[in-house]
Write a structure and sequence with these properties.
Length: about 200
């Protein structure tokens, strides 16, 4: 277990998971084969608006299939580099990462080294919880599969968007715990080279 996972468990009351059992696992599993063929997804129509100096936010419809309406809005935060951009880093959410404060704290120093950072709030967490969901207590195993698929689809789309915005600027993926796994899945399913840390 990563030390951040252990810290998270100590700082939060653990929520019961899968209280409604398995749920619909067939539909998420049916979506997996589409990710086994390497491809490049369509660019997202992100329109970033400034919210503070060097911070911008955008909302766009998620490219992920199978999400209910309340989870469909994808919230992306862009942390601008201090100075010229040398690279762009996309950091998906880890388990229970509601909002942006934990990841922002971990990556903020990179901005001083010329790295622009994109963060997004994952489906089933924070403002994107399922109806009736309490904190991170996913209702079913099917919800867990949908969450993972959503993270992979959204990460892939953000990589494609970042590369199309500035093709010569390197794009990287990073994350700890579940975010690292989702970054690796996204990179493996893209028909282009994207470093993952």
């Amino acid at each position: 277990m990563h030390w951040l996972d252990a810290l998270y468990l100590k700082l939060t009351a653990r929520q019961p998971l899968f209280m409604r059992g398995w749920g619909d696992v067939e539909r998420p599993l049916d979506e997996v084969p589409a990710l086994l063929t390497r491809s490049v997804p369509r660019r997202l129509a992100l329109e970033f608006l400034p919210t503070s100096p060097r911070t911008e936010e955008a909302f766009v419809a998620s490219p992920a299939p199978l999400l209910d309406a309340q989870m469909a809005p994808l919230h992306v935060v862009r942390l601008r580099a201090k100075g010229p951009n040398r690279a762009r880093l996309i950091v998906p959410p880890s388990w229970g990462d509601e909002g942006f404060w934990m990841r922002r704290h971990l990556v903020d120093a990179l901005r001083y080294r010329g790295v622009e950072v994109w963060l997004f709030e994952g489906a089933y967490f924070g403002s994107r919880r399922a109806a009736g969901q309490v904190k991170v207590g996913l209702h079913t195993v099917g919800d867990f599969l949908r969450m993972g698929l959503a993270n992979v689809h959204e990460t892939r789309a953000l990589v494609a968007t970042a590369l199309e915005l500035e093709p010569r600027l390197p794009v990287l993926l990073a994350g700890y715990s579940m975010a690292g796994q989702m970054s690796a899945h996204a990179a493996a399913s893209l028909d282009l080279e994207v470093p993952v840390t």
